[in-house]
Amino acid sequence: MKEELLKRIVKTPDGQEIEIDPLRDYYCEAGPTVQPPAYTAIIEKLFNWARSESLWILGFGTGCGAIEMRPLMTPRFDAYRYGIQWRPTPRQSNLFVISGYLSVKTLKRVIRSYEQMQGPKYVVGLGSCTINGGMYWDSYNTIKRLDDYLPVDVYIAGCMPRPEALLAGFEELKKIIRAGKAEGANQYAANFDWYKANQKSVIHDWDMPDYNW
Amino acid sequence: MQQLYDTLSQRFSLGEFTRQRADLAFITVGAVRLHALLRHLRDQEGFTHLVLLTAVDWLEDGQFQLTYLLNNRAKCQDLGLRVMIARDNASMESIHDLWAAAATYQRELREMFGIDFPGSPRLMDDFILEGWNAAPPYRRDFDTLEYARATYRERPGRETRDPAAHMKQQLYGDKGDV
User: Sheet of B14-21: strands edge to edge?
Assistant: First the structure.
């Protein structure tokens, strides 16, 4: 556990001594909850159409696959014409592209970022490494199945998949969203304990709250 | 480089000399006077740049080999110093006072090989691995595959083929030996 997260006595500017426990005091202990559809089916359908046309990707390249996103951002492949854009913070994005192999150290940051994204949110696994470990199948510090740790909506196979494959994958994700089947955030909330147990089985120095939104 | 070796061997007891190229040579030296030798090379011979510090695990000999690669920018020469240390309770003198960057290499070696460098700054801080609780992974007696199987769940259905046999089948099909 990092020193700044330990329970300690702090002296305030006016001389009082107070005890702080960062993990309890700075974060909410409530876990995620399942959000059922709020409106009638026809309105949800309209919403889902709107959601599918606004895919804002979190600009977090977790592995080598992030290199394939640069041509998508630039004029040659231009993903912006499909309503897809990249954002710098989790709060502003709803699509997390796990771009390639995920080391345990990165997984910790990925979980924090995913939980900070606002629902409805989607995850795309990019490349073979997210599916079954790919060429890192015998590595001592990369995970082999992404869906053990995060709910994944679409996998894009390849090592690496070309930008065209990514565009096809995003179009596939749009179909899933329009069909109302992109329920990753709800799946994560419903099976929260299972996901946490899996995450903690590989992250040995868990030094953050269980749910850090 | 031979000239440099002759000059150095008047002041230090040096081991084997390997001339790899005109501008690259390796010298095997003892661990005891390594610090003084490095200081001499840096201050007197112009090897001002520490290119890298790395280790090799000679499991069968029970030894680690540390390689200090130095660069003389003015003469465009590289000189590698090889030091053999015992593998059990491996420990080596820190050189962070000669090159501050060496502290980072030493942190990495501590984490990946379990080699101790007493006095090196932030030596026990996590470098790449976080919360690692098994043997240092770059040691050759650490079974990477076994660890990965035990720690990370596999997705069923993954096939592994012998590359040579598979490519033969792909290229020539049933045509037999070609």
Answer: B14-21, B24-29, B77-86, B63-72, B49-58
Does residue B92 contact residue B38 with C-beta atoms inside 8 Å? no
pTM, two decimals, is 0.87
Helices (H), chain A: 22-25, 41-52, 69-73, 104-116, 128-132, 163-178, 184-190, 192-202
Sequence ranges of the domains in chain A:
41-202
Assigned architecture for domain A41-202: 3-Layer(aba) Sandwich (3.40)
Among B126, B148, B155, the residue with its CB nearest the CB of A132 is: B155
Residue A135 CB-half CA count within 13 A = 7
- Across the interface, of A104, A143, A201, the residue whose CB is closest to B130 is A104
Is B7 within the bounds of a domain? yes
Cα nearest neighbour of B130 on chain A? A105
ipTM: 0.84
Expressed as residue numbers, the domain containing B136 is 2-154
What are the tens digits of pLDDT across the range A168-203? Answer: 999 999 999 999 999 999 999 999 999 999 999 999
Q: Is A212 on the interface with B (CB under 8 A)?
A: no
Q: Is residue B159 part of a domain?
A: no
Write the pLDDT tens digit of every residue in A86-133.
999 999 999 999 998 999 999 999 999 999 999 899 999 999 999 998
Give me the CATH number covering residue B29.
3.30.460.80
DSSP for A64-112 reads GGGGGHHHHHSTTT-GGGGTEEEESSGGG-SEEEEES--BHHHHHHHHH
Whether B148 and A137 lie within 8 Å, measured CB to CB: yes
The pLDDT assigned to B176 comes to 57
